[in-house]
Amino acid sequence: MLESQQTGRCIREFRAQLARLYEWFEYYSALIRVGEGSTLPLRGQLLGYKARRPLGVVLQITPFNHPLLIAVKKLAAALAAGNSVIVKPSEVAPLTVLELGPMTQEAGIPDGVVQILPGAAETAKQLVESPYIRKIDFTGGTRVGTLLSEQAGKRLIPITTELGGKAPLIVMEDCPVDLAVNEQAVRSSTLWQEEVFGPVVCVVPFRDDAHAIELANDSRFGLGASVWTADHARFHRMVPRIKAGIVWLNTHHRNDPSSPWGAIAPTGNFSGSGTASLGANPSGIGRENGLEALNAYSTVQSITINYADHETMRSSEDWFGPADKGAASSQPPVRYG
């Protein structure tokens, strides 16, 4: 399987993962069909409503670890919102994303609406600096995500970043899960504090729920966490205090088109040091998946309609007409707002 060959990950994993990709396109196509608007509570004889409009050309920069899944997650939401998309896949794992291009043509997407542009750092630099790009969506490392956020800030365009994470697991004493433990991690170590792409687990015992939450939050990341317990009430008491944008109970790393995927900025102190330059939320900003991702690929347009008759409209809208002091008490005031 091509996805396994270019990443080195297990074929079994990708067979399970890639079999679900169609769900993202189904979910977002359903959202735009059933979405309903709302009217605004304006004063007087006015009708107001909101409409969402596409941003234009958006740039998506995808990583090496889940090339096709992450590209599809981003692409489905962007297309559903009405945008044109440039996808720059990872230079070390671009092959399956390149195969996605012809598939979009076969599905009926007009030529040019989806463009796959492989390349390394220089390609990304030219794309993010282009005046035609109206949004950046990046999944990757915290340092590059910080640089892209600075570039987006200079141009005053929105950016979504899904960056690093640690994903602590809180395993309670009543959980039927066995962990093989070799050693106790030191909380100030790089292994505890930094994202590690490898089969490594740090294990530290905790005294009570408060201590467990302290350990789980002892990280500059705030992406995901899980709790393993048969006591659901206990879980619900703990969740509000866990600084993670995604929290699972008795499972881990579950992903669904409807479930928002993103981080909560960590608060307070943590054991690591020397990381202040990486920003306040090194796990990223914004959300993938869900209605949140669809809305992030559009902007809001507010529409106000005056349906008053001509005489009423003239009396209330004419800011520069002659003032009649004698009739001031009987005339409606000229409106403002």
Keywords:
17% strand, Aldehyde Dehydrogenase, Chain A, domain 1, six-stranded mixed sheet, alpha/beta, 337 residues, globular, three-stranded antiparallel sheet, 32% helix
Largest sheet: 6 strands, mixed
Shape label: globular
How many domain modules? Answer: 2
- CATH domain class of the largest domain: Alpha Beta
Helix fraction, binned, reads: 25-40%
Name the CATH superfamily assignment of the largest domain. Aldehyde Dehydrogenase, Chain A, domain 1
Spatially, the strands of the biggest sheet line up as: 5-4-3-6-7-11
CATH topology of the largest domain: Aldehyde Dehydrogenase, Chain A, domain 1
Low-confidence region ranges? 274-279
Through-space gap between termini: 61 Å
Order of helices and strands: HHHEEEHEHEHEHEEHHEHEEHEH
What's the overall average pLDDT, rounded?
Answer: 88
What features would you describe in this structure?
The protein is an alpha/beta fold and 337 residues long. It has 2 domains: 2-163 and 285-302, Aldehyde Dehydrogenase, Chain A, domain 1; 166-276, 3-Layer(aba) Sandwich (Aldehyde Dehydrogenase, Chain A, domain 2). Helices cover 32% and strands 17% of the residues. It is built from 12 helices and 12 strands. The protein has helices at residues 2-7, 11-18, 22-34, 67-80, 95-106, 121-128, 142-155, 190-193, 209-216, 232-238, 290-296, 310-317; strands spanning 39-40, 46-54, 57-61, 84-88, 114-116, 133-139, 159-162, 169-171, 224-228, 246-249, 284-285, 298-306. The strands form 3 sheets. A 6-stranded mixed sheet has the order 5-4-3-6-7-11, sandwiched between helices. The chain has a 3-stranded antiparallel sheet with strand order 1-2-12. Helix 3 (22-34) runs parallel beside helix 4 (67-80). The radius of gyration is 25 Å and the shape is globular. It starts with a helix and ends in a 20-residue tail after the last helix. Residues 274-279 have low confidence and may be disordered.
